[in-house]
Amino acid sequence: MLYQILHAVENLHSTFNQRFDRLEQRMDNLEQRMNGLEQRMDNLEQRVNGLEQRVDGIDTRQGELYLVTRSIEHRTEYISAALQRTTEDVVELSGKVENINKKLFNIQAYIDYQTSKIAENEREIYLLKQAR
User: What residue ranges carry the coiled-coil annotation (predicted)?
Assistant: First the structure.
């Protein structure tokens, strides 16, 4: 009977060792899987960091584009105002040129009138000289 008890204890010990070995193997598998998951998490974290840097770069470029756009808008407003002033100046100068042209026309008419008077006076002087 002692032999049977000893044999039963050996069987229990053997079964316990087999189960313990399987449990250790499962623990090793779980540890490997955990290591794999940790590596994947590290890779994901690196990708997230890379994406954050890209977003920061995009934000920086967007800020630079905003500044360039505002600068262009200011320059456009300045040029538009300058063109408006130039247009007003051209209109004013055009009116002045028109007035000068009218005055020149009047002066030319006066010169033509005086020239014809001088020609008449010269003809009268010539006729008077001829008559003497």
Answer: 13-103
